[in-house]
Design brief:
There is one protein chain. With 256 residues, this protein is an alpha/beta fold. It has one domain: Aldolase class I (TIM Barrel), CATH 3.20.20.70. The protein contains ten helices and eight strands. It has an eight-stranded parallel beta barrel with strand order 1-2-3-4-5-6-7-8, surrounded by six helices. The protein is globular. The chain starts with a strand and ends with a helix. Bound molecules: 2-phosphoglycolic acid. 2-phosphoglycolic acid binds next to β8.
Length: 256
């Protein structure tokens, strides 16, 4: 049985005065939820948050990783460094990385995913279409390509070695503009498709790979998202910056 997961993606928010308090609040507020809770802070917060989370059930994750172990790659962070700071999860190919930093080569992302698995880090591979692609009816073509290339030569022996997140670019709160917010109905077909894709690629393991959703998740809609068949958790941006709100989201997940 897959356990449900709630990931807090703090992006480039907060500061040294607030990170610890936020992490502590989340750890306290979610301690008895039975949901796997993960905090992904900005890199410079890893040490403080790692220390704060010691002895709690909350895990640490990173927002990105480089595909090599070390070298002259200014501005990058390696998997061994992330391990040293206690990370267990890594977000790969987040839609903001794809949108603002040109991280659209799925084969490069596959390298990062393989690097995570080599180092016993769980990659959270984000896929999702833009608004324009959706309007043009290309959602499944885009997902096909992102899953096929991004998981190229990615082998796992246990389902919990990989998480795939559907993060449509158009649904991320910071990118959403005037467009409509996603609803559970928007997700049903996608999660049916993604589950089938996982089973096609990984056989029996595919049933148990966790598939999560990210994009404008909040207290009011999280339950409806969690009721979508095949969906095992959420990646939360804006609403994870308030420990009470995020703890409430986790509580609601535990009730579904
Ligand atoms: P959001 O971000 O919840 O603020 O839409 C989600 C994400 O980008 O992971």
């Amino acid at each position: 049985m897959k356990s449900k997961i709630a990931m807090a993606n703090w992006k480039m928010h907060g500061d040294r005065a607030t990170w610890r308090g936020l992490a502590r609040g989340i750890a306290n507020g979610t301690a008895t939820s039975g949901v796997d809770v993960v905090i992904c802070p900005p890199y410079p917060a890893l040490a403080d948050v790692e220390e704060t989370l010691k002895g709690t059930s909350v895990s640490l994750g990173a927002p990105n990783v480089h595909q090599f172990d070390k070298g002259a790659y200014t501005g990058e962070v390696s998997a061994p460094i992330l391990k040293e700071f206690g990370c267990k999860y890594v977000i790969i190919g987040h839609s903001e990385r794809r949108e603002y930093f040109g991280e659209n080569n799925n084969l490069d992302l596959a390298e990062k995913i393989r690097q995570c698995i080599r180092h016993d880090l769980v990659p959270v591979y984000c896929v999702g279409e833009t608004w324009q692609q959706r309007e043009e009816g290309k959602t499944f073509t885009v997902l096909d390509e992102q899953l096929l290339d991004g998981l190229n030569d990615v082998y796992i022996s246990m389902p919990d070695q990989l998480i795939v997140a559907y993060e449509p670019v158009w649904a991320i709160s910071a990118l959403i503009g005037e467009r409509k917010k996603p609803t559970a109905d928007d997700l049903k077909e996608v999660f049916r498709y993604m589950r089938q894709a996982m089973i096609a690629k990984y056989g029996e393991l595919g049933h148990d790979i966790r598939l999560i959703y990210g994009g404008s998740v909040g207290e009011s809609n999280v339950k409806s998202f969690m009721e979508v068949e095949g969906l095992n958790g959420v990646l939360v941006g804006g609403a994870s910056l308030d420990d009470k709100v995020f703890s409430d989201i986790v509580q609601k997940i535990s009730e579904v």
